[in-house]
Amino acid sequence: MKRFHVHAHVENLQASVAFYAKLFGAAPTRLEGDYAKWMLDDPRINFAISTRGGKPGVDHLGIQTDSEEELVELKAQAEAADMTLQDEGETTCCYARSDKYWVTDPQGIAWEQFHTLHDTPTFGVDRAAEPAASACCAGATQSKPVAIPVKASGGCC
Fold it and tell me: What rounded mean pLDDT belongs to the chain?
């Protein structure tokens, strides 16, 4: 089963944690000095906030898979649709070791597709040693995949 993922940048982590804990009716499942995550089952979402990165707001969206097989299926769908993938493979980001890749929608919204392998004690890898790492950890938009132009389908929703 898959889980929807949203990662947002916030200015004040403590105030944001208090707000989202009330909104979701649950404490974060992971809380660090610069990061918080809720793994909710109703709705089934991985919602994360951090003080790292650019200006406040949604940084990226994603799909988290429960298995490597589901990630392979998602990747095959993206490749069949001729989407450009930025494959990171196994990487450490957001206090977790994951296998992941990125695609970008026509508006420039980055989508992370990933399977979490295990939690880690650090947010991510050293940015100086790996400057092209994911936007999530680096807070650098240049590492997100480039938007792919598509023809308008001529309909709504």
Answer: 81
Domain 2-143: which CATH number of 3.50.50.60, 3.30.70.3180, 3.30.70.1150, 3.10.180.10:
3.10.180.10
- What number of other Cβ atoms are within 10 A of residue 120's Cβ? 15
- Spatial distance between the Cα atoms of 124 and 107, rounded to a whole number of angstroms: 27
Residues facing residue 86 across a β-bridge: 102
d(CA 151, CA 146): 16
pTM of the model: 0.75
- pLDDT confidence bin for 6, thresholds 50/70/90: very high
Q: In whole angstroms, give the CA distance from residue 117 to residue 114.
A: 9
SS3 132: coil
